[in-house]
Amino acid sequence: MAHKIHTEDWDSFDVELYSRRVKRTDCRLHTYRIQYNLYKSDKDLSNPLQAIDYVVAYSRDEAIHTWGKWKGLIKKITIVEPWKR
Fold first, then answer.
1. Cα–Cα dist 72/63, whole Å
2. Does position 85 have pLDDT exceeding 60, yes or no?
3. Could you give the CA distance from residue 28 to residue 58 in angstroms, rounded to a whole number?
């Protein structure tokens, strides 16, 4: 059930709306926002780009595993809670 959300396929992606849909499907699932460093080349090691991916999973560890990249790149992982505004 865990999967990575491919937001690059969408013109405008509403992560909060998607998170509500996920919660209705299975109340134990969470949408995680993973902020990480992105290095384009070896020359950019001192100045990495910041990137965000979204993953749906039951736990933080499962989200990291589903994300599929080296976990040393991760800066911050947060749960998307659409009802807490």
1. 14
2. no
3. 6
